[in-house]
Amino acid sequence: MKKRSGFTLIELLVVIAIMGVLMGLMLPAIQKVRAAAVRLQCKNKLKQMGLALHTHHDARGWFPPGYNYGNSPAAAAPAGVGGLLGLMMAGVWDVPPPALNPPPQTPGWGWAAHLLPYVEQVALSRQIDYNLSVDAWTMYTPRTTPVQAFICPPDSNVGVFWVQTTFGKTLKYSGILDEAHTNSYAACYGALGLMATQPEAGNGVFFRNSNMKIPDIRDGTSTTIALGERGSFFTQTPWAGVMTGGAAVTTPGAPVYTSYVEWTPAMVMARIGEKPLNSPDSEPKDFFSPHRDTCHFVFADGAVHSLTPATSVSVLQALATRDGGETGTDY
Questions:
Q1: What are the φ and ψ backbone dihedral angles of 113, each rounded to 5 degrees?
Q2: How many C-beta neighbours within 10 Å does residue 65 have?
Q3: Phi, psi (degrees; rounded to nearest 5) at 94
Q4: Mean pLDDT, to the nearest integer, of 1-19?
Q5: Residues paired with residue 164 on neighbouring β-strands, in sequence order
Q6: Cα–Cα distance between 289 and 277 in angstroms, integer?
Q7: 107 preceded by a cis bond (ω within 30 of 0)
Q8: Cα(328)–Cα(199) distance, rounded to whole angstroms?
Q9: Can you tell me the mean pLDDT for 122-135?
Q10: Residue 207 and residue 322: Cα distance in Å, rounded?
Q11: What's the pTM value of the predicted model, to 2 decimals?
């Protein structure tokens, strides 16, 4: 009788088991390689922004403002109407706020909008009239345009979104709902401070109408944070700038314990508070990375560094200030 060659059932099961073990060993390695590649992409984007900051400094003599504030035709109240009443008639608020705090923030173009010519977005920058308000209807197309330089690869909830007010409603200007495209990064206002009510008083590189020069950063550009990650999965904020009456709101489903609403200046700036990076107690005015186990920052010298949630709050606060007088900061 002729014998048939082949595998027995036991041999097949052994082979399948071995393949399963090998796949189990390979999968974590593949995931680590993929995560490392994504982190490198994000760091490259921040490196591009660091170069853009210094190109702006070379061209203008200073770093761009956190956002600019001043008179704007598009932000003016209707003829004969001023103050809070004018803003309500323009549709900025659906209900009167308890106080005009903070005051109108127009034109409001943020640090990212001022960097456009230096991140290969000259054509987009030419569409912007920086004397008009970010929320002017003629600025709808620029502010809703995606800019890849400001999108972190693993970030989610990116894209055009409805800007929210501090009262939980969609922001409206002249009766039109306001939309903008998200940003995965924020400028460093500094350590602690009252960003909402004192947007011009930050002790970092960026604040309202800031025009920091390299000599102004007395702690040293290599030990001072300029920009950092704050993903849209955590809070959706515009790259274009701030909108009067708008807010930075915790994104539903964000990995934090509580939802918060932060006043207008937090739409473009973040600061170091009393919590470590990526803390589940974080608020929209904090830095928060989609990488979870690390948070990338570009420093004022243009270098990119990764800081972890294990970094002490005192070190983070020292790195966030431009002239705190700290020496030998170890990160």
A1: -65, -35
A2: 23
A3: -80, -30
A4: 68
A5: 170
A6: 8
A7: yes
A8: 29
A9: 96
A10: 12
A11: 0.82
